[in-house]
Specification:
The protein is mainly alpha-helical and 398 residues long. The chain has one domain. The protein is 66% helix and 1% strand. It has a two-stranded antiparallel sheet. Helix 1 crosses helix 12 and helix 4 packs across helix 5. The protein starts with 9 loop residues before the first helix and ends in a 29-residue tail after the last helix.
């Protein structure tokens, strides 16, 4: 069995931060693509639609892979591991379900209010809309925060298997790692996704979906992320294959975008199987390329990374509400659409960071509501008794 990483995989932290920034960029372009959304610009652009199809091919899948990688350490006995199913579930509930519930009860209403204003379905102030929201428009799906409750569900469902693989089933995991570490074998992990999307109708209940992929595919990708970091040899293989994975991923996803523009082919046809087959393989190749280049060039820690990594969850929670607040006004301005997008993106990023820094990060109550770890209280220095004539011991700084 290969050696497993004993130190923090900083490249996964970097990729998590970069992925959330790309989520911000992706959502900032949804004002201008063809697909319906909360608020739309009067004009949409085919190239923006192509970008959206390209991004959805790998962006959320990458986040679930990274989340699955984090579970490898969360269920282990080493540093950062959580002992016991009860503590594991409690930790995930506090980090994922609390901010999801807070969002539903608070600023999700602002997103729906702006949507109804822009579509002419409501006229009046935000506070006049609130009673309607809580009585008939309350949505437990959680808009963009569906990712949080879905990740919680996956974590709970997978916990018995993952805990077994890290305990009594470690010989099974070792043999699986031996196979996946063989040259090129890591591409086989695309097979479950490929089979699911080709053999099952995308619009069937089994394939209930969001952000371009079925939830059952995200479940597999979470498990795949766990497997990817279970052995250093496997990660090294992904790094070596990065220059093969990148062109394969770009070519296949590009082809899937071309096939996906316009009406989706009917289920059961060769065009349907081809479109989804190349998308599934291309998505996995893109993920492998990102992981490979990340491990090669981003496996280091900095104070900025520590700050950014802690900000990821609050940033994700706030980003869509802020985007919609800014975009609601900007799309109505008589200025070039490219300038609208730049203003929406830059202004939203600045507002999110100000809210995070001065409203969330510094207060333990807000940190709890946004799924963050609480700041430890500064220790209180107690007076010390010393023997006559002896020097006073230096107290540790708080």
């Amino acid at each position: 069995m290969g050696k497993r990483a004993s130190t923090r995989l900083y490249y996964l932290d970097w990729l998590r931060v970069l992925a959330i920034l790309i989520v911000l960029v992706y959502h900032s372009t949804r004002f201008f693509n063809m697909e319906d959304w909360f608020i739309k610009n009067p004009t949409w652009y085919p190239w923006v639609e192509a970008w959206n199809l390209f991004a959805t091919a790998w962006l959320l899948p990458l986040l679930f892979v990274i989340s699955g990688a984090s579970l490898f350490y969360a269920v282990g006995k080493g540093e950062g591991g959580i002992k016991g199913a009860g503590k594991f579930i409690k930790d995930k509930a506090l980090r994922l379900l609390v901010p999801w519930l807070v969002f539903i009860l608070t600023h999700q209403s602002l997103q729906f209010y702006l949507e109804r204003l822009s579509q002419g379905q409501f006229s009046g102030s935000y506070f006049q809309y609130l009673p309607q929201y809580y009585t008939s428009n309350l949505d437990l799906f959680g808009a963009h925060l569906w990712y949080l409750w879905m990740l919680f569900l996956f974590s709970v469902l997978l916990y018995p298997l993952l805990r077994w693989l890290r305990g009594r089933g470690r010989d099974v995991l070792s043999k699986l790692d031996d196979l996946l570490a063989l040259p090129g074998a890591v591409y086989v992990l695309a097979l479950p996704t490929l089979v699911l999307v080709v053999l099952l109708d995308y619009n069937s209940p089994v394939m209930t979906h969001n952000a371009g992929w079925a939830f059952i595919v995200y479940l597999w990708l979470t498990l795949a992320g766990f497997l990817v970091v279970s052995d250093d040899r496997l990660q090294a293989s992904i790094e070596r294959l990065r220059w093969l994975s990148l062109p394969m991923g770009l070519a296949l996803v590009g082809l899937s975008v071309f096939l996906g523009l316009g009406e989706l082919p009917a289920f059961g046809t060769w065009r349907y199987a081809l479109a989804w087959g190349v998308r599934a393989l291309g998505s996995w190749c893109c993920i492998l390329a990102i992981l490979g280049f990340g491990r090669k060039h981003l496996n280091f820690g900095t104070p900025f990374l520590s700050y950014a990594n802690e900000a990821v969850l609050p940033f994700y929670i706030l980003h869509q509400t802020v985007l919609l607040c800014v975009g609601y006004f900007v799309v109505q301005w008589a200025i070039p659409d490219l300038l609208k997008w730049v203003i929406i993106l830059v202004a939203s990023f600045a507002i999110i960071m100000v809210l995070y820094e001065f409203l969330v990060r510094r207060f333990n109550v807000m940190r709890f509501l946004f799924g963050m770890k609480l700041r430890p209280k500064a220790p209180v220095a107690l007076p010390q008794e010393t023997a006559p004539g002896s020097p006073l011991d230096t107290l540790p700084s708080p």
